[in-house]
Amino acid sequence: MKGSVCYFHGDMAVAWERGQFEKVVAVCRRALKLNPNMPGAHIPLGRSLMALGRTGESIAVMQQAVNLSPKSSDAHFYLGQAYMQLKEYGQAQESFRRCIRVKPSHAQAHYGLATASARLGQRDQAKQYQEKFRRLRAAEMEALEALRRSPSTVSGLAQERAKTAKAYTGAAGIYRSHGNVQQAEHLWQKAAIIDPKNTVCRAALMALYRRGNRLADALAFCKKLTQLQPKNTVNYVHLGDVYFRQRRYDEAEQAYQKIVELGPDKPEGYLALVYLHLRTGRKLPEAKVLASKVIELKPTPRHYFLLATVCSRSGDRASALAAVERALKMDPDNAQCRRLRELLRKER
Question: In this structure, are residues 132 and 104 in contact, taking their beta carbons and an 8 Å threshold?
Fold first, then answer.
């Protein structure tokens, strides 16, 4: 089971970072089928369902998250957001209140309460929550400014940047749920610029651009991020993905190669290149070398399966079968690997 948990978190994290919400849903569903109480599965599943417009399903999942972790402010907050999307403002109020009981300083929950109260015609309550939201946001920004002025608190500054970016990301989600896409986009962009490690805002932006068929806007912002944060590999992941969607494969390869240059001892860049060559059918011999490098850096069942797939596509059935056998030795219950082994055996 431990291997399955690691396998889940790895797949889910990659899909989430790339804004591939359909894949996040599929990965989380598989994980929850194996273990209905899988740690960390319900909230990303619920948020992805919301992003896909499947809000009714999201509410059921978020309610499960609340039942499993009643002291999780995030679970209550995102349940409230889901109710807001369905315009069930009374239910949203209750979820946001529970969030605040767990975490009184949760600025976005106060904003959610202000909005829900306004929708219900509760003007006095809405005004009170709006004022509380402003005070909390002002306090966050004041703390950030204080850290900016203090050269001896680099780690604290990074923490405050992350905190502020998370606040922007949460507020953007609320604006998005109310149909204010322009403000949501603005806040997600600010979060991405403030915090290089915030993958949630990047995923949300890429999903927004993809759904609106705004690849030119996505490309422009990705380029801007690579200029502002030239050593942040996540930015090159998204840049390469946008180039791929535009069928500019050589430029996509260059973006992914930059990930390798920045982290030659990490598998992410090599993986991106392998998937690029597989999807385009180009440079399969090179993809085989790259997949072997991935295994050298991180030998997991998923990576052996990838090598087996590359070998199979290249016509090297013996190597493909050997790779999938290695995967099954590590994870005997892996249904995907079993199916591939059966197909390879039938090719005899």
Answer: no
